[in-house]
Amino acid sequence: MRFKSTSFKRSYLVLLFLFIGQFFNIALAQNERKITGNLVDAQNLPIIGASVIVKGTTKATSTGAGGAFSITAKTGDKIVFSFLGYDPQELTIGAANNYKVTIQEAAASLNDVVVVGYGKSTRKALTSSISTVKGDDLNKGAISDVGQMLQGKVPGLNISRSGDPNRNAAIIMRGASTLREGAQSPLFVIDNVVGADISVLAPDDIASIDVLKDAAAAAIYGNRAANGVIMVTTKKGTAGQTQLSYSGYFGVENVSNQYDMMNADQLRSFLARNNSALTPANDKGADTDWQKEVQRADATSYNHNISMSGGTEKTTYNASINYFKQQGIVKTSGLDRFIGRLGIEQKALNDKLKLGLTLSNSISDADLVPYRNTVLAQMLTYLPTAPVRNPDGSYFDNLIQTSYYNPVSMLENGKENLKTKTIIGNFTANLKLPFGFSYDVSASYQNTQNIYGAFYNSIYTSRYNNVRNTPDPPANPTFVSLVGQNGVAVRNAYQNTNKIIETYLTWNKKFGNHDINAVVGYSYQQSLNNDGVQATSTNFPVNEVSYNNLSLGNPYAVSDFRVNFNPDVVYQEILMISDFARVNYNYKNKYLLQGSIRRDGSNTFGNNEKWGYFPSIGAAWNIDQENFLKNQTVLSTLKLRGSYGIAGNAAGFYPLTTKLIYGAVGQFYYNGSPREGAYGAIQNENPNLQWEKTATTNIGVDFTFFNGRLGGSLDWYNKKTTDLILPFEVDQNLYPSNLLTANVGKLSNKGLEFVLNGTPVSTTDFTWTTGINVAHNKNKIITLSDSQFKIDDRLTVQPDGAGQSGATLQILSPGQAIGTFYTFQYAGKNANGVSQYYDAAGNIKTQGLLNRTDYYILGNAQPKALIGWTNNVRYKNFDFSVFMRAVLGNKIMNVTRADLFRPNTAQFTNIPVEVENESTADFNSYKYSSRFIENGSYLRLDNATLGYTFKKGIIPGVRSLRVYTTANNLFVITGYKGIDPEINQGGTAPGVDTNNFYPKTRTFLFGLNVSFN
Questions:
Q1: What one-character DSSP code corresponds to residue 855?
Q2: Where is the TonB-dependent receptor-like beta-barrel domain (predicted)?
């Protein structure tokens, strides 16, 4: 038998290739090996949960206990380590199999990445004023509002908040830029979704917040940026092992301060000394502390947050669920909220295309207090000699006295509830193109549904059917008639939707020493508001029906009842399209230029003014890059910057604002009786109404010393708003209606901001970092007139206390600040113990004073300085932080105290203990005047936290474990005599305490943070 040589040769070649292949496999297996090691920080502490990726591959893991990692790689591979708050670290694999890698914490320096409009930048490349707060540095506590998380953290951001869990904080950036209520808050942008509702955010979801303060930074957002822009970046998934974590706390709150009102014995003694006594209807032998009856002794709050993230180098994801519940310190009030969030990012086309999808959903259930401020007022004035209930268990009431209501009965017999559902979906796509171009598309949808219910039962409709309602200033008190019997119910459901499509092209190019970044884009937004319905009913068979079934009422049996369909809420459609562009130029990282412009068009404004243009320009000089500073070691960075920009304000305007509208204006006589409805013009047309414009000049300097151990910034700004939108009275011979909304008026804000951060001590076992920020702003109204409309000033805030009808407290006047107090000047007491006041000529009088004519300018509510001071200390596994906040130089009009200052009516309403030495002959004691304008300055210990992080590996399966306790609002140092000096600083009537003082609480939290392997 012979072998065929060709077959043998083929077989030989196959065997040869198999042998060679096996040889290379063995060689490859020898080169690709297990790489292990530990990741630590600069203090040699392990970093747990960091992402570990072999660059250019899908191999990924994360660090575990002790910062240990294990991954397969070969010689020459690059392994990238990344962790939130730290600079990425790259390791090139050599001959060794085990490595110790040190990762550096990202310092709060000029090299930080900052989120700006339609892009990102390093702080070193900025030409404008932007402040950044990392998620871990936000205020901690039982906080339901993002605004409160920023209190005291950003210079120039004036944030005030009451203790009510259902009230958002008032946020004013660098002074008020408008005279319209509800139009002063900054614009929120969440993950590039413009105007997103901040209620969809849980505190644990926030990675960082960038605050664009000057117009040059914010002008890229055009007609919505006059009040500044707050950019919120949420946490994203990172490649590596799946990370599962939980954080939660339990808190107990109690009232931090109360009014010192007389008890029953003190009141009887006071009246006896003044030859007076209580009426039998009011003295029932009780000794009731109404503040304790209205408020909870201890309110509880708790928060649970579960998050999961991970993925590969191509696909990353993150998901979180948050549940928050907080009892209000006023009984029957509280907030229950659930937030779910899901995000995913996918890379494709060799990583040139990145797709992202984020879904957020917030569901809140808020129990409100009907006629809240009225309940708070009655809590103080109701006599302590009256019981909460009669012997038979029914609520006590003295119905002979007017405007005198049992506050506990008001709480228990009225109910208001608001359920809110908000969902935001955002799809993004980023495509990297040749020649340094990239293309971004973003499409977002936001839907908010509000379901409101209110029920005032048969006790309300029989006893409190003419309630004195005391709203927050500048609104004036009114009497509200609850028309109906056997209970009144209100039910409504409205929804708002917001659709945004934005697309922009970015070009990044480097030519030698020249860097150019350019952005050009387009935005389309459609908002549909107030899509819904309301109905009312009355005459219910039982009180337990509440507002849940209006059909059980019988309103037609009540002759004067009319179903309220809420005609004041009008369906609105708002359309806006925009073009924008920005160019940044960088030469040798020394000299920086930036210019931007946005063109906005909207159906909101007049037919002749539907388009607005908002430009900005900025420049900066990185002085530390110059040769004359190269060889010194003290100064690390030094930058001088300046900018100018114009932004607009379109908040609170709708398409019908500029239209001629007809409506009911009363009735006319027909056959001798006014039976027929009369209709006429109720709003004038103004085709020339346009945006308010705010122009800001900003000059600043940024610096760091000693390799970043000490750093800060100093900013000066001049902000001027023109074309203020105000209503004016006009001649009805020339206009159909007597009111016209027009662009008239100017106001300005000028100020300084200073930030200083330092690390005085940094060792292996002990680190101390501290930071302080100080801001000063001077607000001034320049004019309220032009060639057509002439107005010198406007009086605002009319509390309408008993015996003070027509008295006002503040004035909007050229040369004065918003919140300027304008009222009577106190001149002490005469020989008979009667309070006296100066008239306009300087004469001292007890009677005959005229409102306005005899008023004086008596300071204003604008603070002269806002201060925030943070200290963080770490000793081994312990961490301790303290945050203090101060507001200095502001005045508060204590209307609440003035209305209580009535010694001559103590037999009808309770009085404070401080009034016991006042004379009952003083019929002038309560008059609104400088006597009740108090210094509102305060220093508050806002937050103190002590935590301990357990050693790694102490519990199997647990990557890290930290327990902590936090105390909020531990103390306040102030001379203010009210409940709390943190009175609303927002709106056109700041600094007025008029029974709107929902009590603040002192909170103690116990919590833990844990992550699992």
A1: -
A2: 386-970
Establish if 441 belongs to a structural domain.
no
| 3-state secondary structure (DSSP) of residue 548 | coil
DSSP 469: E
* CB 622 within 8 Å of CB 701: no
Domain endpoint, select from 55, 74, 105: 105
Alpha-carbon distance of 987 to 471, in angstroms, equals: 13
Q: Which phi and psi (to 5°) does residue 407 adopt?
A: -65, -35
pLDDT of residue 12: 44
3-state secondary structure 262-290: CCHHHHHHHHHHCCCCCCCCCCCCCCCCH
The contacts found for 757-764 with CB under 8 angstroms, 24 or more apart, are 757/108, 757/710, 757/711, 757/712, 758/709, 758/710, 758/711, 759/708, 759/709, 759/710, 762/43, 762/709, 763/43, 764/43, 764/44
Q: Identify residue 513 by its one-letter amino acid code.
A: N
Q: Is the pLDDT at 57 greater than 90, yes or no?
A: no
Last residue of a domain, one of 49, 79, 105: 105
Q: List helix spans (H) across 773-815.
A: none
Collect all residues with Cβ–Cβ distance below 8 Å to 736 and sequence separation of at least 6: 660, 680, 681, 684
pLDDT on residue 698 = 97
Q: Which of 225, 215, 220, 191 is nearest to 579 (CA)?
A: 220
Query: Mean pLDDT across the chain, nearest whole number?
Result: 90
Task: Let me know whether 75 and 141 are in one domain.
Answer: no
Encode pLDDT of 431-474 as tens digits.
Answer: 999 999 999 999 999 999 999 999 999 999 999 888 888 888 88
* Domain extent for 84: 28-105
For 790-877, list the strands marked E by DSSP. 794-796, 810-812, 820-823, 825-829, 835-838, 844-845, 856-860, 865-875
Domain identity same for 78 and 148: no
309: Cα within 13 Å, side-chain hemisphere: 24
Answer whether residue 2 shows pLDDT above 70: no
Reported confidence tier of residue 668, pLDDT bands at 50, 70, 90: confident
Q: In Å, how far are 74, 192, 231, 475, 826 from 442, measured between CA atoms?
A: 40, 8, 16, 40, 60
Q: Cis omega (within 30 of 0) on the bond before 46? A: no
Looking at the fold, whether 200 and 164 belong to one and the same domain comes out as yes
Strand order in the sheet with 933-935: 933-935, 891-894, 992-993
Residue at 723 is within a domain = no
**Residue 38's domain is classified under what CATH number?**
2.60.40.1120
Phi, psi of 208 (to 5 degrees): -165, 160
Does residue 124 sit in the same domain as residue 205?
Answer: yes
pLDDT at 74 over 50: yes
Among 637, 769, 650, residue whose Cα is nearest residue 707: 637
Is residue 929 domain-resident?
no
Q: How far apart are CA 803 and CA 789, in angstroms?
A: 35
Task: Extract the tokens encoding 679.
Answer: 């209709």
CATH of the domain at 128: 2.170.130.10
Residues 6+ apart with CB under 8 A from 946: 878, 879, 880, 964, 965
CB 741 within 8 A of CB 761: no
DSSP codes, 215-243: HHHHGGGGGG-TT-EEEEEE----SEEEE
Q: In the block, which residue shows the tokens 């507002």?
A: 547
Rg of the chain on CA atoms, in Å: 33
The model's pTM is: 0.88
In a shared domain, residues 129 and 168 = yes
Q: In this structure, are 56 and 126 located in the same domain? A: no
Q: How far apart are CA 664 and CA 189, in angstroms?
A: 40
Same domain assignment for residues 137 and 222: yes
Of the ranges 58-62, 216-220, 410-414, 580-584, which one carries the lowest mean pLDDT score?
A: 58-62
94 shares its domain with 200: no
For the residues 35-48, what does the mean pLDDT come to?
A: 83
> Taking 90 as the threshold, does the pLDDT of residue 390 lie above it?
yes
Q: What's the domain count of the chain?
A: 2
Question: Is 159 inside a domain boundary?
Answer: yes
pLDDT of amino acid 245: 94
* Lowest-confidence region among 91-95, 104-108, 389-393: 104-108
Token pair, residue 281, equals 């209807």
